[in-house]
Request: fold
Amino acid sequence: MDIHFNKIFSFLFTMLLANNAAANNWQLIKNEDGIQIATRPYADSAIKQFKASVRLNASLATILAVLDDENAFPHWVHQCSEAKILKTHSFAERYGYEKINLPFPVKDRIIITHSILRQNPQTKAITITMNAAPQYCHKQAQNSNPFCKQINASTAIMVPKASGTYKLTPVANKNVVDLIWQQHSEAGGTLPKWLINALLSDTPYYSLQGLKRMVKQEKYKNAELIYDTNNRIIGFTPESKKW
Reply:
């Protein structure tokens, strides 16, 4: 009886390890210019999830300054033609909009994202979680928002599902940060899934190339963060906000 039980336990434990390995089965598909991109299957989706990593020669404040400047998004986010903050609950929580221009005859895409920022008080690492909020502009409370009216009238396709994270981890030098961007998105519409997967590296690769350029701009370099009495980030010092 004991031998039989041990065999069953050993089998189940082996299967658990195999499942864990599969869940972390990232496949490296691009490694150029200091940017590494990997993909893996995503549960209940034909579209893969990507993970992109890069080391940035910039402070946390500088990187957050670029992310805070929605007017700059078209200068670094791949295929982004327009971006807008729709609502700010706090520095750490906001709703944002981006329009993604795609080549004809493919229809452009719109994505509304709910993002939340958290910082580890010990390591100072920052995690920004991002989830698509496709119904945001259809809610009654948003009807007076002129930008929501524009979004609702658009012929572009709303991205129905997306979830991702930016993780910013300072290294020994306070002006060097490791960024890991992990994301899965459903584009909506009738785009072939094989084509989306084939082009999956483009968005993170070209966006991170752009981000590497942006953090070098003078207007972001001297950004300084403000913390509240609970040591939570609440914004930038007025004299350092040049964007």
Notes: DSSP finds six helices and twelve strands in the chain. Residues 5-23 have pLDDT under 50 and may be disordered.
